Amino acid sequence: MENMIINHWAVLVCAIFNMVLGAIWYSPALFYSAWKRENNLTDEQLKKSNPAKIYGISFLIAFLMSYNLAFFLGDANTDWQWGLTAGFLAGFGWAAAIFTSIALFEQKSWKYILINGGYIIVYFSVIGFVLGIWR
Questions:
Q1: Which domain holds residue 29?
Q2: What is the C-alpha separation between 126 and 90, in angstroms, rounded?
Q3: Using one digit for the tens of pLDDT, what is the confidence trace for 85-95?
Q4: What letter would DSSP give residue 3?
Q5: pTM above 0.85?
Q6: How many domains does the chain divide into?
Q7: Rounded Cα–Cα distance for residues 11 and 70 (Å)
């Protein structure tokens, strides 16, 4: 695959963006209260979590997802439009779809599904755009 183009800096930025988007998406200004309520979590429970473990593993997973999409978009003809489209399709058609299926079996609410599914779709769409434009 001699025409494969992967910008490793773009992949790193996309992984960092995952953390930034999550901080905004799940902040009190947006969906924190609803997300907490839909998960039946209290502030006390959340304070008992291990942030180093959660953020460390989450970053590694974001890095893996970013590289995975970068390989799918590695063709030399990829541009921002195809990146955005492919990112949206990966987020909506794969990631959010399987998340929704699992959440339905877990008897989660539609509010829960929309909050988390929306995050997934936005994340993949944006990283597809970034990987498509930053060649």
A1: 8-133
A2: 11
A3: 999 999 999 99
A4: T
A5: yes
A6: 1
A7: 7
